[in-house]
Design brief:
Strand content: over 45%
Shape: globular
Largest sheet: 3 strands, antiparallel
Number of helices: 4
Number of domains: 1
Order of helices and strands: EHEEEHEEEHEEH
Helix content: 25-40%
Structural class: alpha+beta
């Protein structure tokens, strides 16, 4: 949900960094000023080289402050990302976006942005990360996950340290869907 605007205009803040480790700090500084996440992309920019770029926005005239809190996950190991994603979800964070980023220190990483809204009770999510080099394998895994109540929330296709050129998907289901799937088995 987006905050109520005082009119139909928005103002934006562009965040960019070559270090994923500093992006979380910048996200939360912008959130403290009333901005919230709009989009993310990793890649080469004209002036900055390889960067993660995030756009934050807020309605013009909005006086909301400190409503949102952000967490950035960045890793080149599928097993690590799955675990960190679920741990963050267990504390109220929700998936907002992902990209592949070729960082100066970590190599190719999947970067995921998560958001926590302090003004509403968070939905309880269970996340699943799927990564494979074969689209036929991904099709099979997606069909299986869908049968368990998971829905796709994010997709990247790029070379990663996970295992070359991969399809990386993030899926989630509510804990209600998890309980339903358990009861059916």
């Amino acid at each position: 949900m987006t905050p109520a605007a005082t009119d139909d205009r928005y103002e934006y803040k562009l965040l960019s960094t070559a270090k994923t480790s500093t992006m979380q700090k910048e996200l939360n500084e912008a959130a403290d000023a009333g901005y919230y996440f709009q989009g993310v992309m990793g890649g080469e920019t004209g002036a900055g080289g390889k960067e993660v770029v995030v756009i934050m926005g807020r309605p013009v005239g909005s006086e909301e402050r400190e409503r949102y809190e952000y967490r950035l996950l960045a890793t080149n190991k599928t097993s690590t990302m799955q675990k960190e994603l679920q741990q963050a979800a267990n504390t109220g964070y929700e998936y907002k976006g992902q990209t592949i980023f070729d960082s100066a220190f970590g190599g190719k990483e999947v970067v995921i942005i998560l958001e926590r809204d302090h003004e509403r009770r968070p939905e309880k999510w269970e996340y699943k990360l799927l990564a494979t080099t074969k689209t036929s394998t991904m099709q099979k895994e997606l069909a299986e996950a869908a049968g368990q109540g998971f829905q796709l929330v994010g997709l990247t296709v790029a070379g990663t340290s996970f295992g070359g050129n991969e399809v990386v998907t993030i899926l989630r289901r509510t804990t209600r869907e998890h309980a339903k799937a358990q009861a059916e088995n």
